[in-house]
Amino acid sequence: MSGIKIAVLLSGGGTNLQSLIDAIELGKIPGQISVIISNKKEAFGLKRGEKHGIETMVLDKNTYGCKEKRDKVLVETLLEKKIDLIVLAGYLAILSSNVIEKYKNRIINIHPSLIPSFCGDGYYGEKVHQAVLQRGVKVTGATVHFVNEITDGGPIILQETVAVAIDDDVKTLQEKVLEIEHKILPLAVKLFAEDRLEVVENRVKIH
Q: Record-annotated residues binding (6R)-10-formyltetrahydrofolate (predicted)?
């Protein structure tokens, strides 16, 4: 298969991974997922990948020990697979500065809020939606961005909004935002694969 080679890193269920798999199989993204890597062996996203014949890998403490060793194995794997793009799809581990520098503007993350709101250290998963509801905002959404050394601080590629209803709870809000995530993440990967993204200072220009 021609196109870019993608590594997806995840820690959980992998619904965003599934959105990428579906888009690739429909021919919407010129590329392939070469490997799925998780820091949790029980992550359901690994099973999703196996179902589609994608190579999977568990990169956890029990298997590889200290963080330095895991980082070394991660870089070796990415280089061996000749990865063009790293997608963080609910990956709850910190990438080393070495990985971030080596793959500058080639790592993208999906975050369940409209950055710069409800982002940064401590804002992940349901915690984001809890904060949104506690603050009482009327609009939230999702953001796809490039990854840099600042948590959720890299250049923004795409954002889309959803309304927060008065009767929303964490579960219903999460479902709304996930629907948006499943739309804009494959689109961002498509734009990258088609070489249509250009980073100018801290802004992304879409060609």
A: 70, 109
